[in-house]
Amino acid sequence: MHQPSAVTPDAPTPIRLPLLTQEWLDLAFVHWAVDPAAVAGLMPRGTVPDTHDGLTYVGLVAFRMHRVGWFRLPGIPYFGSFPETNVRLYSVDAHGRRGVVFRSMDASRLVPVLLGRIGFRLPYLWSRMSVRSVGDIVTYTSSRRWPGPRGARSRITLRTGERIHEPTPLEHFLTARWGMHNMFFGGAAYLPNHHPRWPLHRARLLACDEDLIASAGIPAPTAAPVSVLYSPGVPVRLGRPARPVPTVTLAP
């Protein structure tokens, strides 16, 4: 297994012919530390938990997806724009590629949910959702409709703060992820993404009532999150899935 690639705040390679384009807007990044052994069994074949100072993390990431488009076509205004809330873990494969693993992806548009489930084998779920801003306070709500567990929910409220000019190594580790690992047709693969460097802001978590993490098969957090961040967002390009990754095992 290769050594994990360096964590870089800028995308390592351009994507000149994107498979998908979209914008990720008004993002809340809420993270808890977790023992890698507790989530190792949830990783796709060929990946293991990625760690920072011996710990890995579970992220609850809420945002607005905006104008998803295929290839270089203009983004779709209605079906391509919707709130989304993801539960994600952090992964690394035998090639040293760092990424994320989505355990659940709640979204409010049924058509993109079906396309994501059928076309990309992603764990998309149809939910009632909203993202509302009043001054510097942003509230994200989600209540699952299908396929279940029905009623799985989250309500996140945060107050946005000052721009972060020099993110910490952990903040880069949690946000500068340039791909995802997933079980696509034909086996595990890596889907790269490219976007400008994240504009990150400090944020204060005012409320977090959720059971999405436990519903995704991850032990529910019992402590306060170790990191809460906000970003106004970035334009994104997604590339085509890279070749399957060979099986890796945790070092003894």
From TrEMBL:
SUPFAM superfamilies: Acetoacetate decarboxylase-like (SSF160104)
Pfam family, one: DUF2071
InterPro entries hit by this protein: ADC_dom_sf, DUF2071
PANTHER family given in the database record: DUF2071 DOMAIN-CONTAINING PROTEIN, DUF2071 FAMILY PROTEIN
Protein name: DUF2071 domain-containing protein
Organism of derivation: Streptomyces hyderabadensis
